[in-house]
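Appendix B. Chain record.
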Amino acid sequence: MSAEDDSWSKVKKRLQAEVGDDIYSSWFARMDLEAIEDGTVRLSVPTRFLKSWIQSHYAERVLACWQTEVQEVGRVELIVRSAMRTTMVKPKPELEPSAGEAVRYPNGHGAKSRPLTVGEPNVHEALGGSPLDPRLTFDGFVVGRSNTLAHAAAKQVASAKRGDAVMFNPLYIHAGVGLGKTHLLQATTWAANAMGERKALYLTAEKFMYGFVSALRTQTALAFKEALRGIGVLVIDDLQFLQGKSTQAEFCHTLNALIDAGRQVVIASDRPPSDLESLDDRVRSRLAGGLVVEMGPLGEELRFEILKARVLAARAHHPSFDVPAPVLGYIAKTVTHNGRDLEGALNRLLAHNKLTGHPVTLEMAEREVRDLIRPQEPKRVKIEDIQRVVARQYNVSRSDLLSSRRTANVVRPRQVAMYLAKTLTLRSLPEIGRRFGGRDHTTVLHAVRKIEGLVGNDMALAEEIELLKRQLQE
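Structure tokens predicted for this chain:
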């Protein structure tokens, strides 16, 4: 590793520690070091939107991280990678990449692409929607116990006609990575547009931000807002990436306008509305007022059915591709993390079969997918579960824990519940305080430190807390 690469590695670690894993993976994970020349660091990102966002919100922080590692650095220059490559062929720095060039988005869903045009981008490009994958339809969606309700609600939304009463508004679907949120949202968009009754528009949160920022820059924000509010079915994916107070405020206004006008809104995120700490309280409240549906982990039976469906789809292009049932059963049993890992496992078997001519066997599968077999993740504990279990253990009500009562029989259980919320969840102190009756984060910190101090000296309390932890994690 060169000295420059070593410095860049240290800068990335420092930046990640300062902004946190979520923000780092969203905005900085695809930033690369191009060169360090005469005290100037040249960094590249894959899209113009990323460049604009980082320059507006994190330029000083990135420079400070560099200056901590390399004192000679006085300036950080940010460029768009694809634009840089274009200028190598045609030395016109104002040009954007050619139409159709793929761009990776920071949305947790891997590579997606959109056409880029020469010169200034169309301000209302966002109104064309984010790209739709023709494979992601209801016909290709495998239904199981963990996604039945979300699938039924999405189909009902897609099949509604103009003038029908809107049943679920907004429809809010949340799930972990790779469990089918994007598939369901794109299927809803395809089906709604195929009906011809209403115009459905699918946008990632990043595309929504891009369109709004572009409209502000070119002073056409009013037209942008009006056009958005004329959509019959607005579908927003990856809401957790919606950043910026003005963008969130506009999203809230658009959401209210559409719902009040009887238009349908469908939203997906990786967490429930109450856990979207970066969003305004008004937005969270409006989202929670609709139908909130969680898509749970894929069970073994559903994973097996997904694999069967993917093998049938692969045979449309590779008729001789065959995966014996025992191999499908092995993958369904051992590759448990998400649907993308299942597709990755099948792609490896297909590649091995086509490139070597060897039939797919159980031995081959064990060898090819071993790195996809991940240790079982611990159960995700929710603050509501903690409050319920603690209230039952100490014979108080959940409303007592959230109340302002200061009697001893309520204070200790409340402190224990706050301590467990801090140690068993990823929620911040302010968020925990909000979920315990709107308390200040200093109250939560006091409770955590109080219980930490008592546990070391009170064996009975230590055993009670261990018992509560086991109950919550079973």
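Further analysis of this model is presented in Appendix C.
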